[in-house]
Amino acid sequence: LLAPHISPDHAPEIQFAMLPVAAFLLSYITLSVRDVGARDLLPLLSALLANAFMGLSALAFYYIDLMTGSAFVPTNEAFMLHLVSGLIGIGAMGLLFHFLPHGRRAEGGAA
């Protein structure tokens, strides 16, 4: 859906890479539009929301597999890959968004 030129065989790997980033960006945009007032905490709050989403989606895939016998998450290794990739991706996005405004402020103050 997000990358139609990629073969379906690579879909799980693309999902593991793109879902954490999409979850972080959506939570960041949602919080910034709602103007929660704590601009310094936006990246951290977004990371917390995105982590909760990744954990819930991994658990949802796991329980859907148990109930229906499908193969969204065929092994425990795939389940852990889903969780760990989510945490790494969200952590990287959180750090990027946390240090980006500080770099702009330092650049503006030095001029």
Helices, by number, come to 3
Low-confidence stretches at least 5 residues in length (pLDDT < 50)? none
- Topology, number of strands: 0
Q: State the order of secondary-structure elements, H for helix, E for strand.
A: HHH
Question: What profile does the largest beta sheet have?
Answer: none
Mean pLDDT: 71
Helix content: over 70%
Beta content comes to under 5%
Radius of gyration: 17 Å
The tally of structural domains comes to 1
**Outline type:** elongated
Please identify the structural class as seen in this structure. Answer: mainly alpha
Terminal CA distance reads 45 Å
Description:
This protein is elongated. It has helices spanning 11-34, 42-68, 76-110. It has one domain. The chain is built from three helices and no strands. It is mainly alpha-helical.
What's the topology here?
Layout: H1 11-34, H2 42-68, H3 76-110
Helix pairs in contact: 1-2, 1-3, 2-3
Keywords:
single chain, 111 residues, mainly alpha, elongated
Short description:
By secondary structure, this protein is mainly α.
